[in-house]
Design brief:
This protein has a five-stranded mixed β-barrel. The longest helix has 14 residues. By secondary structure, it is α+β, with helices and mostly antiparallel strands. It has a single domain, classed as Beta Barrel (OB fold (Dihydrolipoamide Acetyltransferase, E2P)). The chain is built from two helices and six strands, in the order ββββαββα.
Length: about 150
């Protein structure tokens, strides 16, 4: 099966271009931690089209954590100079912004969302007035048709 999943930080702000056929296209680079080698990063070039290109250029910026999924493509062509060229490229079908980088967050240790400190306090939970709860309880006792069974 030809499928990849990579997660890492964007190395630059993604920019969208329009191809000659009218499709949105975005080429970007992810800095990905190398498996089994702490502190060693690989820089992976990825291309995406249409809605994925629009998403990444609209919602993500340099240093944001990104997950890319897609296919590995191998291409051969002859350049204008007559030389045959080959390229292995990653074509992302899905782009997902995982969580944005915080200023105090190091690259090597991304903080999962549940451990982050919220930037704004969460709104208080709505509370039910005690009188309503008492009245509701007494109403339930009176209307309980199965109470005698």
């Amino acid at each position: 099966m030809n499928y990849f999943t990579l997660s890492g930080r964007l190395t630059a702000n993604p920019e969208s271009k329009v191809t000659s056929t009218g499709k949105n296209m975005c080429k970007f680079t992810l800095a990905v931690m190398r498996y089994g080698k702490p502190g060693v990063k690989d820089y992976i070039n990825i291309t995406c089209f249409d809605s994925s290109a629009k998403y990444i250029t609209t919602y993500l910026k340099k240093d944001d954590w990104c997950i890319a999924r897609g296919q590995i493509r191998y291409g051969k062509w002859t350049g204008r100079d007559g030389v045959e060229r080959k390229e292995l490229s990653l074509l992302a079908d899905e782009i997902e912004g995982a969580f944005p980088r915080l200023d105090d967050e190091p690259f090597e240790n991304p903080t999962p969302p549940q451990e982050r400190k919220p930037s704004q306090p969460s709104p208080p939970k709505p509370q039910v007035a005690p009188s309503y709860v008492q009245n509701r309880q007494s109403d339930a006792d009176e209307d309980d048709v199965f109470a005698d069974e």
